Amino acid sequence: MNDRSGTPRDAASTAVADPDAVARVWAAMCSLVLKQEDRRKEVAETLGMSFFRAKALRRLLPGPLTMRELTARLATEKPYTTLVVDDLERRGFVERSVHPDDRRCKIVTLTTAGVAAAEQAERILARPPRSLLDLAPEDLAALDRIMAELRSPRG
Amino acid sequence: MNDRSGTPRDAASTAVADPDAVARVWAAMCSLVLKQEDRRKEVAETLGMSFFRAKALRRLLPGPLTMRELTARLATEKPYTTLVVDDLERRGFVERSVHPDDRRCKIVTLTTAGVAAAEQAERILARPPRSLLDLAPEDLAALDRIMAELRSPRG
DNA sequence: AATAATGGTTATATGTCTATAACTGATGGT
DNA sequence: ACCATCAGTTATAGACATATAACCATTATT
Description:
The structure is a homodimer of 155-residue chains. Chain A has a 3-stranded antiparallel β-sheet. The two termini of chain A are 36 Å apart. The first copy, chain A, is mainly alpha-helical and 155 residues long. Chain A has a single domain (19-151), classed as Winged helix-like DNA-binding domain superfamily/Winged helix DNA-binding domain (Arc Repressor Mutant, subunit A, Orthogonal Bundle). Chain A has helices spanning 19-35, 38-47, 51-60, 67-74, 78-90, 112-126, 130-133, 137-151; strands at 65-66, 94-98, 106-110. Helix content of chain A is 59%, strand content 8%. In chain A, helix 2 packs antiparallel against helix 6. The first copy, chain A, has 8 helices and 3 strands. The first copy, chain A, is elongated. The interface between A and B is large, with 42 and 43 residues. The structure holds a DNA duplex (30 and 30 nucleotides).
């Protein structure tokens, strides 16, 4: 059947995307990304901690955060952040210090070991699948451009 | 600096991919897919079950499976499959029956409610992000082609 | 100064999944 | 018939994360 009767040929610039193509693309993208979700397991095993803890370290990579901020970035609850930071501190990956301007706040900072662990986690997660590396240069360039487009939709 | 000194112009077809571009593309792809990982939560909340259970239903959508097969597809252990199927059966989403040729095996089949739930889960997960829908038709077509390429790398 | 609000901790209960061991019933090879 | 194997179940222990309530110290409000 393939009923394409309603295809409007006038609205070229604002054409509605082909739903089938969008679905195909989205499914393929999800499949590719989620297929090696065992990367999470690899991170956990490599660092000897739960993926969640590794995530906490990664969130601290840009710079120190208060417990409150870290809680928000991990999308969890305060008590669990306390628990996780306790553990990370005990293992020497982070340090707690009191905020100079507000003694209620604690500032969580990565130690040298913490930075190393966080970077290793990032490295593992950033490792692209083989098929991406094998892509033809012109396809990669096109993909690069389009993914940038997807990130920041043009006006 | 951008040192491209070693670029071999002879091996065009087997050119090494630009590592930066690959990294960018991969990061963008992961970001896009993982950003709405709350889809999982949406599925769980909508169906009133854990995402893992919803996943079990989805795996059964193509057709009935034995416990063993279902266990393999869920990448879990037999005892947990028993538990999950027990729960899904109690709630009326699946039914167990004995395999006609091998009475050791149980065949797990979706009920009507199970099919509906599984399809709803698929629908939620298949929903692409806005930016994909807004993509220019020619970009979408290119993306479609390249993603297909990524799925089954050419020889 | 009294009170409320905030950041963090402690304690506790629960849901979800992982991992093992031990068991039952059915099948298949000898 | 005997024994090994296989599918599934039961039981148990534990890791990990979620969710709440109660609490303390500090800061802000009045």
